Amino acid sequence: MDAYQVVKAARDLNRLSTIEIIHALCSRFIEQHGDRQMKDDQAIVSGIGLMGDREALTIIGIQKGLDTEENIRRNFGSSGPAGYRKAQRMMKQAEKFNRPILTLINTAGADARPESERNGIGEAIATSLKTMSELTVPTLAIILGEGGSGGAIALALSDEVWMLENSIYAILSPEGFASILWKDSARAAEAAEIMKLTAPELKKMEIIDRIIPETKDGKAYSKEELLTILVPAIKETLQRLGKKSVVDRKNDRYERFRKF
Hints:
The protein is an alpha/beta fold. It is about 45% helix and about 20% strand. It is built from 12 helices and 10 strands. Helix 7 links the parallel strand 5 (about 140-150) and strand 6 (about 160-165). The mean pLDDT is about 95.
């Protein structure tokens, strides 16, 4: 597929979701609600899961809806300040109890409505980045579909960052890029080609660490088949990262992001 076809695939509402991964990964999951300041932003699902009987982890994921009603409730996967502050609360809790953190990302970008701006969306994103940079527990971020702008990077300052094969990761949408550069959003396909937003391009630039295949011999995996690849990889990686010393893990994360 060309870059804009990948963009369209990344936006498909039927893509593998945070909730589906939680159900496949965890034998039990207790969702946590609210940021203790404003409200419970349902664009972000967060909580404590058990892998098997004993291995606990914290999961923070952006969830889009599968229909209009759910999309409205979850604001189409665009979280506001309360969502990122809920994520920060869960990160700090994971740090306190020494639980690894998995973040799952699928957002066109953070909520940019006036209400969101008034309540400090910029500060919330910045504080999320600061919080993640200071974590001593293992962290893994996976971009499932759209990885849009600050809304995505706020949950992606991790020890490792993965992307599904047909996901994207960029500073803004191709339509926004084309509008700024050429004053013409209709040139979005052209913009997508020069933005280097696909997984292979980002892997080549070492911005991400791993690509999770979604196809084999030109045939798309079902969600069940994709989960049989993804779930064991998540478990193995969190265990591997957990064996590193805290000093090595923090130094590696620092070097990883400083090279950009």
